[in-house]
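**User:**
Make up any protein.

**Assistant:**
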Amino acid sequence: MAESRYLQGACVWKGAEMRQNHRWLKQIPATVLEQIDAALAAVEGFEWRQVTDRNFALPDAAAFFDEVREELENGSGMVKMCGLDVSRYSQEQLRHIWYGIGWHLGTPMYQNRRGELMRDIRDEGMEAVKLYGATIDASGKQFLSSGARTLSTGALRFHTDRCDVVGLLCVRQACEGGVSKLASSAMVYNEILRRRPDLHALLCKPIPRSRFGEEAGGEHVVYDLPVFGVRDGKLTSHFSLTYIENAQLLPNSRRLTDAEYEAIQMLMDVAEEVCFEMRFAPGDMQLLNNHIIYHSRTAFRDDVDMGQDRLLMRLWLSVPNSRPLPEDHAVLWGDVGAGRPRGGIAQPATAIAV
């Protein structure tokens, strides 16, 4: 394996810097907000799934969305778009708006095997377990899938999603908690390389993951993928501890070594060190490049009577200016070429039986 080098560029940052640097905050231009209203009127009577960038026309938004995509791919890796007054729209109208904006930024990808292209992120209690599943760990306790954890009030650990860009539109915020925590995975990469090159080397080698019922099909139930991969000087880090832990519950999966566990724990510790926190306000649209950003969430508490029950609308996007990925990432991403449609969850009609 070639010797690892430190990553360079705007994607390498610490949270303290980003609290002072507002390059990632993008105010939606007033002309674009006006055109959103006109576009919404043009698709009245359509289901939100029928909305595209062609029938949801935003003629003066191209330069703004180019700036957003540039910041996501070649800048900090994150953007918060602000300015949409969600109180002016119904929940269904917000779906039309958000899906239309998604099409202007990229291509929406499937988020689960039921073919959902937009997913409400809210507390669904036991319904989430029925939808996304759970298993039993070695101690006999219930082990929730990643999807079930997301649709609960609990905290989420640092992770990435299986898409180039994950987008969240805040419709309502919880009365307490639900704070978003963001970390540069490029900074985490550099810090582990600086402090413990031996553990860094392990994260550049294959780690077994489980699909955990995430998709109906796929080449393998358990697959190997490094946490860190670099191609043409650009990082991609795909990490979700839930899928790694679940692979360890399966009989035919390779057991992780103590050193690998130490490396994973160091990754999470360093991410916590270098992250920063941001709280959504209604109307905020958070966009994250999963290749270079880890995200997590604090636990939250809803108050339905006060209208403070947390609701985010999530999109998974494949974007036209995406980076090339290492060849061994095809097991998860499909096409690894730059700017290629990729990511998301294979659908039953097109999945390979396992």
Summary: The domain at 15-118+155-206+215-239+254-333 is CATH 3.60.130.10 (Double-stranded beta-helix). Residues 258-274 form the longest helix (17 residues). The mean pLDDT is 91.
